[in-house]
Amino acid sequence: MPSARLEENKQTVLAFYQAAINDKDHNAASKLLSHRYIQHNPRIADGLEGFREFVETLKVDFPHLRAEVKRIFAEGDHVIAHVHGIRVPGGPGTAIVDIFRLEDGRIAEHWDVMQQIPDEARNQNGMF
């Protein structure tokens, strides 16, 4: 895949984080999703309607939620992001790895793995 396409895919995912998570703007974020959007997080319903419900829940339950992308990688039609999710300002947050599959420049599929950041660590390496 040409490097320009890989960069476009990364930019699409970054725009998605901004619209969906940071701005909680379903309309803007849904423009970045394929009409066949597949969700692998078992707490979020499949498809565009499931995504809308997810964003509406964020607005109510976590209005200050922010996603800070620490690293982003692209290979083929996949983008992987290492993210610091902060639900409450000043809180330790969650370390997240999101995997996206893109199709025709839109996000078609999503997987994630999340780990709470502990108050104390047994090493000084940090999670990011």
Average pLDDT, rounded to a whole number, is 97
Global morphology: globular
**How far from one another are the termini?**
28 Å
Provide a count of the helices: 3
Q: Find the count of extended strands (DSSP E, 2+ residues).
A: 5
Percent helix: 25-40%
In what order do the strands lie side by side in the largest sheet?
1-5-4-3-2
Order of helices and strands: HHEHEEEE
Low-confidence stretches: none
Radius of gyration: 15 Å
Question: Can you summarize the main beta sheet?
Answer: 5 strands, mixed
How large is the share of residues in beta strands?
35-45%
Category from helices, strands and their pairing: alpha+beta
Describe this structure in words.
This protein is α+β, with helices and mostly antiparallel strands and 128 residues long. The chain has 3 helices and 5 strands. It has helices at residues 3-22, 26-30, 47-61, and strands spanning 33-39, 66-75, 78-86, 94-103, 106-116. The protein has a 5-stranded mixed β-sheet, with helices on one face. β3 (78-86) and β4 (94-103) form a beta hairpin.
Summarize the structure.
By secondary structure, the protein is of the alpha+beta class. The chain contains three helices and five strands; from the N terminus they run ααβαββββ.
List the helices and strands and how they pair.
Blueprint (H helix, E strand, L loop, with lengths): L2 H20 L3 H5 L2 E7 L7 H15 L4 E10 L2 E9 L7 E10 L2 E11 L12
Any descriptors?
five-stranded mixed sheet; 128 residues; globular; alpha+beta
